[in-house]
Design goal:
Chain lengths: 152, 152
DNA sequence: TTAGCTGCAAATAGTTTGCAGTTTT
DNA sequence: AAAACTGCAAACTATTTGCAGCTAA
């Protein structure tokens, strides 16, 4: 993890600014999300953090993720074909690529869609809170004939 | 419903071309999807069709939807905040607007994103099968102070 | 004929929630 | 001190699946 988690870190300030009460569990979860581009699920976050934050419960991971999403600190990316929701703390407008074979979610910055949100907001009349922009297909690795199916 | 469902209808031909076996239940489900822009869920489809297709089962709706998605006839739009997946038979590249208040999914053709898919396909190396492009926010109706919260 | 579909009911699994105790503000 | 959070376990519910009978091809 590349993010400071001290009491005055950017991370904590962001949570306070968003009106989210700060607890050790929430810091752990939020900083884990910020420090990865793997778009984890609740369960994978729990399994990753559990050793370092003993007695962390899966329910708290779910509750915290919902809180972070509701307060706009994290985006919920939806199901990637594995039946569970993935999350992203990178709020920069960008596209995701979902592989229907290995169920990985990858960032894709090759197209700029920053202007689209503005156009949608203006023309639709919606008060926008977020976006979920994913293209679904088979990734190059899984396309190779020799590819072994990655562990789900 | 505005679509003919005779044995030689476009709809049936499309299913056959996609390699999907044709049954009365599947015709009912697929034509209902084609004839609406409401982006139904499995349950709402079931409730809508059940009176006209007695003994239709919810399991068949789920199975059929998966079959149609896998064969590329229908797009799965993911959860709209109501905890269940919504579906769309309109494969034209377009954006969806999801209201976090009333959980409605609406089409939005105000921005053209047809070129994005091509760029993604070329630059990412993915074999694209579909897309899920949604902006999330609060719709104008739900934004009105006098708005009553629509039935979920 | 036969592979594949259907309905039913049971199983699965992601996510939420009630509660009692603890922590943040 | 009040309001909100946590862990645990139980509850909830969308979705899947096993099976026996039916049907499209």
């Amino acid at each position: 993890m590349l993010v400071s988690t001290g009491p005055d870190s950017v991370l904590v300030r962001r949570m306070r600014d968003a009106g989210v009460r700060v607890t050790p569990q929430r810091i752990a979860i939020y900083s884990a999300l910020i420090g990865t581009d793997a778009h984890p699920t609740a369960k994978s976050l729990y399994e990753h953090l559990s050793p370092g934050v003993p007695s962390l419960s899966l329910a708290t991971v779910y509750n915290t993720l919902r809180t972070l999403v509701v307060h706009g600190l994290v985006h919920e990316l939806g199901d990637a074909g594995d039946g569970c929701a993935h999350y992203d703390a990178d709020l920069t407008p960008h596209v995701h690529l979902i592989c229907t074979c290995c169920h990985q979610v990858r960032d894709f910055f090759g197209v700029s869609i920053g202007g689209v949100a503005a156009a949608v907001a203006e023309e639709s009349g919606y008060r926008l809170q977020g976006a979920r922009l994913a293209y679904i297909g088979i990734c190059p690795q899984c396309s190779e004939p020799t590819a072994r199916r990655p562990v789900v």
